[in-house]
Amino acid sequence: MANKFIGYHEGQGFLYRLSGSTKLLFFVLVSIACMATYDTRLIVAVGFASILLFRWAKIRWSDISLAMTIVILIALFNILMVYFFSPSYGEEIYASKTVLFSGWGRFYLTSQELFYLLNLILKYFCTVPLAILFLMTTHPSQFAASLNRIGVPYRLAYSVSLTLRYIPDVQEEFAMIKLSQEARGLELSKKASLIKRIKGNLQIVVPLILGSLERIDTVATAMELRRFGKYKKRTWYQAQKMVGGDYLVLLLALFILAISFALIIVNKGRFYNPWA
């Protein structure tokens, strides 16, 4: 799975035994808790716990390196744009100003702005890893069943399941086509220039997408012939009943959410202010 996008990762352990509904609700509740507050202490604690969960699930860095690289690039771009449009927003939030770098014009750096940007980037690393962990430890059919269990129509839930199942196949097909093209003399490795690699990959991606659309049409037709969607409800072969461990995990998620709201009250707002 190295250098691939995220997908279901077979494994054993506590996380794999949890119900898909439990993991989905845990992710939603903890994400709300982290998004509601800018208290660095809680965000760092959740982010650190997420890293430990990866080790617990025995998921290697090579399994998620590509996805995390993209997340890091997006996070860096986001904080750059925030600073570009509002370099003094941290001062307004924390009602204090400690200049670290004078810069030029309106572009200068303060401790308050740096602390605010740090909180922004930390939010990515306390929610995105949980999302990746959920997707990599939850079978697509369990994911669909969990979506249906919390109220999502089963037609939509089944579409999500099919998408998650199909992504690894597309990745493998892309890798095979890329290797065959390189065997024919088309250089697509890091040795080639960036422009040449982009053009070469586009030559693979475009026909692959067109072929994928044809497969989707074939699958949709086959499902219609089997009268999929005739009834309002359906059962799920991969659905799991909630047991004691599931309820403990949900209680933990509610506890984290309660801490988030309590910190908002204690801090008299969403932001933890070390300069107060």
UniProtKB/TrEMBL annotation:
It is found in: Membrane. InterPro entries: ABC/ECF_trnsptr_transmembrane (IPR003339). CDD domains: EcfT. The chain crosses the membrane at residues 24-54, 66-86, 114-136, 247-266. The keyword Membrane applies. It is a multi-pass membrane protein. PROSITE patterns: PROKAR_LIPOPROTEIN (PS51257). Keywords: Membrane, Transmembrane, Transmembrane helix. This is Energy-coupling factor transporter transmembrane component T family protein. It comes from Streptococcus dentapri.
